[in-house]
Amino acid sequence: MPGYATRNLTVQVGGHDYRLRMLSDKQQYADRDGLAHRAGISSAQWCLFGQHWPAGQVLAQAMSEIELGGRRILELGCGLGLSSLVLKHRGADITASDHHPLANEFLQHNAILNGLSPICYRDLPWTAPDATLGRFDLIIGSDILYERDHGVQLAAVMLRHAHPDALVMIADPGRGQRGGFTRSMLEQGYLCCERSPDFGEHRGASRGRLLSYRRPSKLN
Fold first, then answer.
1. Among residues 69, 109, 73, 115, which one has the least CA distance to residue 94?
2. Which site among 67, 138, 143, 148 is 20 to 30 Å from 182 CA-CA?
3. Is residue 1 part of a domain?
4. pLDDT tops 60 at residue 90
5. What was the pLDDT predicted at 203?
6. CA 198 – CA 215 distance, rounded (Å)
7. What CATH number is given to the structural domain containing 94?
């Protein structure tokens, strides 16, 4: 690829192997047209979309097991798109989203690597309302609460795009911002349930949680 190096990785989710094209390391950077800069993505953040993160593995595993039931599903900050690939493989109605200028290119390449048809993708900056996107029954994301204002921004996304009875699932490795998001979700009438799946051996893995949010009237 021009300006940066990639490698392929095979990961197993739900007993199935998925192939991912990813950036070869965290030192890769190429923004010749300034698209990332205009999107507010710094050189230090540029490579993050193109890595396979433990939280992404946790979320993908959850998506391999969750009941689909005809749900319309939105993945936020999809990056390489592992969870979207898993859901597409299962025949789900999945829309992947991100704001990195290369996310869609990597997502669609990874779909081809896994013998899947193209995945619906939307460029979705969290601070810019999109009246054409509609509402979803399940909204998911992994490792997307890593800056102080992300909790409030994501809660606003839920207001705009979650059905009243929607389920929201976030795999969070414990970067310190989930408290603010949970408070914002409680203000919208959601309750939070936490699970502690295996986030691997990376530093701070014991703080990792799979967070599920749903309004109480819809819990039964």
1. 73
2. 67
3. no
4. yes
5. 61
6. 26
7. 3.40.50.150
The domain tally of the chain equals 1
Mean pLDDT of 175-193: 93
1: CB partners within 8 A, 6+ apart? none
Whole-number mean pLDDT of the chain?
Answer: 93
- Burial of 76 per CB tally in 10 Å (0-12, 13-18, 19+): buried
Give the residue, 75 or 203, on which the prediction is more confident: 75
How many of the other CB atoms lie within 10 Å of CB of 176? 12
Q: Is residue 110 part of a domain?
A: yes
Q: Is residue 70 part of a domain?
A: yes
**Cβ-based neighbour number of residue 93 at 10 Å:** 16
The answer to whether residue 25 scores a pLDDT higher than 90 is: yes
- Which candidate, 48, 111, 123, places its Cα nearest to that of 82? 111
